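Known limitations

Files may contain more than one protein. Parsers should not assume a single record per file. Below, a two-record file is shown to illustrate correct handling: read the sequence, read the token line, then continue until end of file.
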Amino acid sequence: MVIELIVVGKTVGAWLESGIREYTGRLEHYTRFIQTVIPELKNARNLREEQIKATEGELILDKLSPGNHVVLLDENGQLPGGSVAFADRLQSLMNRGTRKLVFVIGGAYGFSASVYARADEKLSLSPMTFSHQMVRLIFAEQLYRAFTILRGEPYHHR
């Protein structure tokens, strides 16, 4: 299974970039992982929130293929019930024959209605709010943790 993470805007902060590189590098031992960055809109200050979401939504949808299983990382998504439950969900998708699993972290205003309509699932990492920048690192670590759980490796202490 190929896993892709689509994010809106580049990661700001060397320490975040370093952490993300650390965990995405570790992921290469378990799966093919791709991170796709959708550039921030250049004229965003002149646009309304709905215009920004619509434009970013079109750019996100352009990156998706019909067979992709799409999971939005969204504050109103379902909480996975912990890291083990998240790992079990990944295993279930692999067992189902999912070829490409795409996780999407939207921009500052969230997702457009068209992106929500395309999504197969919405996932929340926490009831707490994190910056979109932090979510990238937290998600990369949780994805790595999930694969170590599935392999019975000692990274995750049960």
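...continuing to the second record:
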Amino acid sequence: MPAARESLLEAAGAALSARPWPQVRMVDVAAAAGVSRQTLYNEFGGKAGLGRALVRREADRYLDGVDRVLSAPDRAAERLAALAEWTVRAARAQPLVRALLTGAWDAGLPAAGRRAPGPGELARAVRDRAAAALTPGEGPQRCELAVRLALSYVIAPAEEPGPGELRRLLSAQTRTAGGR
């Protein structure tokens, strides 16, 4: 049933983008996915299970984006800046990603459940992926700095950072932090 599961998650995501989670109806999700309600219930057990799977999928998609950004052939500083920019864009575009990164869940979103990563766990996963993708000696401190800078833009939104603004801030902070 992987195709049905993905279709159901796509339909649930589309429904969530159109209305708050409490107003998303299982019958509408099943119909949009082209499956029966019974298939939906068999796959997820109920609306809470569907919501948890949707949250987990968004966390996985965000981390897949992190991996794509970090696999670029750019220098380490450019990849870290791209990582920060990706995080800000993803959080602004996807309310579930913003909630996962900040822990601020509003009533219009499905509950995360125990299997979804919390903000600290997600930030550590990003930091560790970044540290693994950089050359030895770059250190996890720079990765941590990039993640925390991006999260500051997510938590306390300002206008969209201009081109190169996060890169400039990361360079300045890195020099201040001891030249790492």
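Parsers that stop after the first record will miss the second one. For reference, the second record is described as follows. Residues 145 and 173 are 8 Å apart (CA to CA).
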